[in-house]
Amino acid sequence: IHCTYDPLSKSGSGTPESQRKVKGTLHWVSVKHALKAEVRLYDRLFNDEAPDGHKDKDFLEFLNPESLVINTNTYVEPSLKTAKSLDRFQFQRLGYFCIDPDSSPEKLIFNRTVPLRDSWAKIEQKQ
């Protein structure tokens, strides 16, 4: 990852740089201070919008093998240790998540409820 940091652009600082329009502000998590968590990325269950609409095929043939991806190597803010069941959060570049009812302070589990719109895919389509 390559990034730049301009301390003069801090919102509310009153500097000319702070008046620049930015697309967004990212919040980075220090792995050294973060907590490990499990993140479950849910996607479409079927690869066909009408899996039961094929007379010659079983609807199970259209199951999406990527409908659930579990990432156990994720790091989150230490403050999320106190999150309650079904509390919601936005994770950078991934979407919105809620804490799983089976989660505990010792094993944090987050379920993606809504993915973010993929602006990079739009850019690639235009090229």
Provide tags for this entry.
single chain, 127 residues, Ribosomal Protein L25, Chain P, 5 strands, 27% strand
Can you walk me through this structure?
The chain is mainly β and 127 residues long. It has one helix spanning 119-126; strands at 35-42, 68-76, 88-91, 95-99, 108-115. It has a 5-stranded mixed sheet, with no helix packed on it. It starts with 34 loop residues before the first strand and ends with a helix.
The H-and-E topology, N to C, reads as EEEEEH
The average pLDDT score comes to 85
The secondary structure category is: mainly beta
Main pleated-sheet profile: 5 strands, mixed
Strand order of the largest sheet: 2-1-5-4-3
Helical segment count: 1
CATH topology call: Ribosomal Protein L25, Chain P
Question: How many domains in all?
Answer: 1
CATH homolog superfamily: Ribosomal Protein L25, Chain P
In whole angstroms, the N-to-C terminal distance is 23 Å
Low-pLDDT stretches are: none
Rounded radius of gyration (Å): 20 Å
Number of strands: 5
From the spread of the alpha carbons, the general shape counts as flat
**CATH uppermost class:** Mainly Beta
Percent of residues in helices comes to under 10%
The CATH architecture category equals: Beta Barrel
How much strand content do the residues show?
25-35%
Brief summary:
The chain is mainly beta and 127 residues long.
Q: How is this fold's topology laid out?
A:
Layout: E1 35-42, E2 68-76, E3 88-91, E4 95-99, E5 108-115, H1 119-126
